[in-house]
Amino acid sequence: MLKTFLNHQWIGFWRSRGQGTNIAVQIVMGLLILYLVLCAAAVGFFMDKMISAAFPQKDVFEVFNGLILYYFALEFLSRLQLQELPTLAVVPYLHLNIPKQKLVNFLNIRAMFSVFNFIPLFVFFPFCIIRISSHYGAFAAVMYLVSIMSLAIFNNYLALYVKRLSMASIRFVVAGFLLLVTLGLLEYFDIFSIAAISNLVFSRIAVFPAIGFLFTVFAVAVFFVNARFLRSNLYIEELSAGEEKKSSTDYPFLDRFGEVGALAALEIKLILRNKRSKSTASKGLIFLFYGLLLYKQSAIDKNQFGMMLFAALFMTGNLVLLYGQFMFGWQSAEFDGILSNKISIRNFIKAKLLLFNLSSTVLTIIVSLYGFLSWKILMVQFAAYFYSLGIAPILVIYMATRNYKAIDLSKGSSFNFQGVGATSMLMSLPIFLIPYLFYVPFNYLANPYWGFIALGIAGLAGFFTQDFWVGFLVKEFNKRKYKIAEGFRER
Amino acid sequence: MLEIKNLKKTYGGRTVVNIPELRINAGETIGLVGNNGAGKTTLFRMLLDLIRPDQGEILSMNKNVAHTDEWKDYTASFLDEGFLIDYLTPEEYFVFVGSLHGMNQAHVKEYLTRYVEFFNAEILNSGKYIRDFSKGNQNKIGIAAALMQNPQLLILDEPFANLDPTTQIRLKTLLKNLRITHSVTTFISSHDLNHVTDVCDRIILLEKGIVIKDIRTTENTLKELETYFAE
Prior knowledge:
The complex is a heterodimer of chains A (491) and B (231).
Chain A: H1 2-15, H2 23-45, H3 47-54, H4 60-82, H5 100-112, H6 115-136, H7 138-164, H8 170-188, H9 194-207, H10 213-232, H11 236-239, H12 252-255, H13 258-273, H14 275-286, H15 290-294, H16 297-301, H17 306-316, H18 318-322, H19 335-340, H20 345-367, H21 375-390, H22 392-400, H23 422-426, H24 428-445, H25 448-464, H26 466-489
Helix pairs in contact in A: 2-6, 4-7, 4-8, 4-9, 5-10, 6-7, 7-9, 7-10, 13-14, 13-20, 17-21, 20-21, 20-26, 21-25, 24-25
Chain B: E1 2-11, E2 14-24, E3 29-33, H1 40-47, E4 55-60, E5 63-64, E6 75-78, H2 90-100, H3 105-113, H4 116-119, H5 135-148, E7 153-157, H6 165-182, E8 185-189, H7 193-199, E9 202-207, E10 210-216, H8 221-230
Parallel strand pairs in B: 3-8, 3-9, 6-7, 7-8
Antiparallel strand pairs in B: 1-2, 1-4, 4-5, 9-10
Helix pairs in contact in B: 2-3
């Protein structure tokens, strides 16, 4: 029976809409997964080198031991956000002659098939096998593996359990994230340390390996708590996350824009109230940390702005890029209604520009905090901001008029390739390349500052001639609206 | 009101709609009947400029619907759930649609009080998004939103489907009244011959995209249609 279930899931995965039809998308998806696995494996294999490079004065084992619990704390939060509850898979079987226990077993086993459960294998196992076994002996290494595996399973079922109790609202995750940052800071100032606890626990395991089974006990306990909860709550209503009362919302701020504002408000609701759009937009917030990675003091000092421009473009325009990529597919479900209602296409497009411009402005204000590092960063970011204001949205909407793929809003966005087509995959290229067309020549002919001035002026020029571009986009839209509507009806 | 000339649409070599000429006068209530695949929805979509005809044109008040947007000022429609914005609450949806026709929130509220009976206390203040309603209730929301626009031309695709018996009867009364009080031109399709013959004063029967019958409703019409479909 279990095999039949898993087989159905497997078939369902391959036959799901959007998948199996587009080979290119599957290849890209495969490569992406491979890339992730390789990254994890690389981190695993070079763990000791990375540790000694980052903390040269500290003991490698101490840092490694300290890392483990941190990793799983972070992982737990990401699981809450990203991991899907596999419960809906069971609905078509509920009314058939199948014992409930079997369904529960299936759900529990199904839950193991998650990327999250495999990444720790790649990240931690190489170090355990190479370093721990040679230093503390094979048994200790095995117990490390057992503990880490147990922690992953513990996290797996705990996250699902918490989600089932429907406590996993965004607020919960944000709070958890803040807690983790606080712990990190406390750690930094030597006040309190998770790493020390983690180190304490795992250095014990290194000496008395059998302690590792404690984690296994925890994992098994959570597994049973989760299974019992499922067993007594296997009803369609209770399987999905909690139903709170929905209320109507207004965005008075947008009222001043008339119909354009009303349409923009509509789109904000779309983003906030649907799973896929919400996770796409919130993913953008993670990219705000790009600056930490790519704004290097050495590059700033030497005026090497290439990579910094990339980061700035991504941060100031991330809604344009990530959300705009699938436009107008987000609205595929109600597209017929939009066309036949008394909505002027001009305002429809203007509303999107308004939304993009507002988001870029807010994002730019946030990332201006990076300006504390150097005034040069502000310059790069404002050039990128003007581009995201004036040029990028127009490009994105132009490409949207050539995208005929509907988006299913009810699924999460991670590893979701439904509705991904050639246009949406290729579109980010020109959007990233065009700024360099302005920047690079001036950079070589004069200096980088002129490059940014050119980029900024071009962006502002686009912004102030927006009306003209809207007219152009309306024409493009009208040329292909039947085709777009037809594509969106094929869901 | 509406004039169809030489209208043709084919999908993969199969003619779905083929109407050389059809005129619809202001104030008529027309019922479109026909089996599945007769081309009813395709015709409606072309009327609403959602599908491009392969040939011919549709004039609404003498203007081609594909060339101007003017028809949107006086046309309201509900074909399927694709017309609803499913992540809004019904109230938000009504306010949004109302705002497109210059109605403010108070107007919309006032209007909705007239439909309390039609909604049967299930739609308003329910604390749900439209996507969480049953099909029948979604249907009601769509119909009410269309009526709210105070149209001169009303297009509804199978409005009686999924509705409970009480609401079906209420909807019939509503449509009949609209003709009398506002002389609205109504174009509806239905599989329920009883309902269409009851509500409509003219019946158009489509088969494989071709108009087979175009008759004024009399007391014999229901019989006539039943014999036709029984064959």
